[in-house]
Amino acid sequence: MTEPCDLTAVEARRLIGTKRLAPSELLASCIDRIETVDHAVNAIPARDFDRARAAAKRADEAVARGEELAALHGLPIGIKDLEDTAGLVTTYGSPISKDFVPTEDERIVAAARHAGAIVIGKTNTPEFGAGANTRNVVYGATGNPFDPEKSCAGSSGGSAVALATGMVPICTGSDTGGSLRNPAAFCGIVGFRPSPGLVPSDRRPLGWSNLPVLGPMARTVADTCLLLGAIASDDVRDPLAYSVHGGSTREAAQFYPPPAIDLARLRVALTPDFGFAPTERHVAEVFADKCGLFRHVFAHTEDASPDCSGTDESFEVLRSLAFLSAHADKVRDRPGDVGPNVRANVAEGQRYTATDVARALTLQTRVYRRWQEFFQHHDVILTPSITVSPRSWRELYPAEIDGKPTRTYFHWLALAYAVTLPGHPAVSLPVGLDRNGMPFGLQIVGPRGGDALVLGVAHALETLLMGDVRTVRPVPDLAKLRIARPIREAEGFFGFH
Questions:
Q1: Which residues contact 50 (CB under 8 A, 6 or more apart)?
Q2: Is 497 a member of any domain?
Q3: 34, 165 in Cβ contact below 8 A?
Q4: β-bridge partners, 303
Q5: Cis status, amide bond into 155, omega within 30 of 0
Q6: For position 131, what pLDDT does the model report?
Q7: Is residue 336 assigned to a domain?
Q8: Which positions ≥6 away from 445 have C-beta within 8 Å?
Q9: In a domain, 144, yes or no
């Protein structure tokens, strides 16, 4: 019999609305799952069970009174530990903030609560989201639910693991170099990077930068769309969330239910590497095998990529600006409390000149315009979500791929940041396992502003592929996780070495 915590968010919300599932019953099931398997993976280290139970009781009472229920009414949610959450410790994965308890929710958290979601706890993240391997010196490492010795990627790693193991039906995340898409791929769930400004941020230090975005994560595309509809909005605090004065351009109905897409009408480009990403041979071969199972359903497929020349150089410079803005003072004042990834980015940024920044912005614009030309002839692009199969979480980052050294500690994320730089929406969809028995993610990239299209394509593909054991969403072995040794007993659990 399916446990309530294993229901999709859409199904759980339907049962709550028809009085067949109480929010308190769903919450109790989620708490039980956390308490029985999280010792093995360390996904939700900061928990808010007492306040969650009180909120669930109020949600029960609202249902009993026959009140109009919001879209996420009664659904437990995990909040990434980079996002300020009122009354709950928010560490950003840093010892500098290990005791910080915000007095107010940031916008994405407030929006989820307003839509009826119940915050159950904070999901683990690398220090300030840097590095895409979910490890820090505050809460330690988060293990992959399919093999806790391996990385769950990041930086929304705790959210992905919590979803894969049924601890919660929905989670928040954020993405610069793939932080929504990378852990989704490694853990077999859905992570969506929206167009910049679709999910407004009231805390982004460089408000005009299109690189960092907030977004939803879930186990299915429909669940992802349900959460997106609640957190997408116009908001004057985010300069990228602009709209025509007096009107709104971001409505929930655009995204949920996911739009119906006829795959047979699509022109699709397929590329294992965007022409430059250091993709592991194994990943490229699995990608070709997976696409071979379904590429015939599209109107036209072509092995092609936009011209991404200059992407590495531009992204490296522009990414460093965000680290300079947010963390240069920490590196200066408390260097012993800042990890190697953050220090490396700040030091890199301090070496650049205004001429370097101007060149990076010019390259970004050139890449953007080449992408617009490419999408005149293609509807979507399909790629692997990430360049490697999951490796040990003790490896801070892949220093080499197939024997070739990587450029930077984030070069292995190039399949993701190739999409970040021009600002297009993309989703990572689970499509079975790779040859190592680990989850494999398919990245679906849409045109400028094509968020609804990307999600519609993902939903149509998900529906098509769920009937094939080679492409169905994988599920971790919960029985093994229940009896696994606590991950905190593993050597190297805390720290960066």
A1: none
A2: no
A3: no
A4: 270
A5: yes
A6: 85
A7: yes
A8: 380, 381, 382, 383, 419, 424, 425, 426, 454
A9: yes
Please say whether the beta carbons of 279 and 311 come within 8 A.
Answer: no
Three-state secondary structure along 149-169? EEECCCCCHHHHHHHHCCCCC
Count of structural domains, the chain: 1
Find out whether 218 and 190 touch, Cβ atoms under 8 Å.
Answer: yes
Residue 470: give its domain's CATH number: 3.90.1300.10
Give whole-number Cα distances, 484 to 39, 140, 159, 281, in Å.
Answer: 8, 17, 20, 32
Cα dihedral angle (46, 50, 55, 56), rounded to 10 degrees?
Answer: 100
**In whole angstroms, what is the distance from residue 418 CA to residue 406 CA?**
15
Residues of the chain with pLDDT under 50: none
Q: Please tell me the predicted confidence (pLDDT) of residue 253.
A: 86
Among 275, 279, 364, smallest CA distance to 319 is for 364
Q: Tell me, yes or no, whether 483 lies in a domain.
A: yes
Q: Which pair of structure tokens corresponds to residue 58?
A: 């109020």
Q: Computed from CA positions of residues 491, 494, 496, 497, in that sequence, does the dihedral angle turn out positive or negative?
A: negative
Range of the domain at 140: 4-489
Q: For residue range 444-459, list pLDDT tens digits in order.
A: 999 999 999 999 999 9
Q: Is pTM, for the whole model, over 0.90?
A: yes
| Model pLDDT, residue 497 | 57
- Predicted local confidence at residue 127, as pLDDT: 96
∠ CA 164-167-171, nearest 5°, is 75
Nearest to 9, CA basis, from 21, 184, 1: 21
Closest CA relative to residue 194, chosen from 10, 427, 379, 461: 427
